[in-house]
Amino acid sequence: MDLLYPRRCPVCHGLAPAGKTICPSCMGRLPFVRGSRCRKCGKPVLKNRVFCDDCLKYPHAFDQGTAMLVYDDCVRETIAYYKYKGRREYGPVLGRLLALHLTPCIKEWKIDAVIPVPLHPSRERARGYNQAAVVAAETAKRYGIPLVTDALIRTGRTTAMKTLSAGERREHLKSAFAAGSGLITKNGTAWFRTREGWKPLLAALMIDDIYTTGSTADACAAALKEAGVRHVFTASVAIGAGAAGEE
Ligand SMILES: [Zn+2]
Ligand SMILES: [Zn+2]
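Above: the input record for the complex with zinc ion. Below: its predicted structure, written as tokens.
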């Protein structure tokens, strides 16, 4: 298959060496999150800090989060190709790396279901795929945890979020997500649909491509908790490095 459809490297966008999904030198260029991290959202922070500026400012609806890469110019380009230039093939590559990154978290968090952050249906139709779902599928597969794509739905269209301030994003997103047909509440506990029937959803792992201020993660987590999910964790491929001085 690789001969018919040569793979492109998600970092340099050239042809990846035979049998590889990323050039070894490009792998070395990826800015993996290392060192001190915000205990709440996983953002890199200075050595003596416990929380990042955003987490000190806003209480989050999710329990805890983690991210794999720092959202620098190189990663920005990778994700732009993946989302806007039709390079769907980058999704499983990033997804497998994220799944590896999640090994300690999966053990600690006791996840019942992996839930990708949903796109608005019209946006997903236009793109042909939900980039978060393609990435999330790899974590579900690796750990044998159900991938649930109908637990959450995006009800509001959220356009031009990039130009909004953190406070405006929060306001804009407040009612943008709701429980979908794959999630029901019984006596205050959430249940999700599986092939074998309904199962209680105590801990959910939400997966997205980018985490910036956490407003999307919060809006999703709030909708899940309202439906009776006890614990909501977040994981993203890339995370903004945050306020100045938080390299
Ligand atoms: Zn490369
Ligand atoms: Zn934080």
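Notes for the reader.
Residues 37-239 form a domain with the Rossmann fold fold (CATH 3.40.50).
Strands lie at 64-70, 113-116, 152-154, 177-179, 183-186, 189-194, 197-200, 203-211, 231-239.
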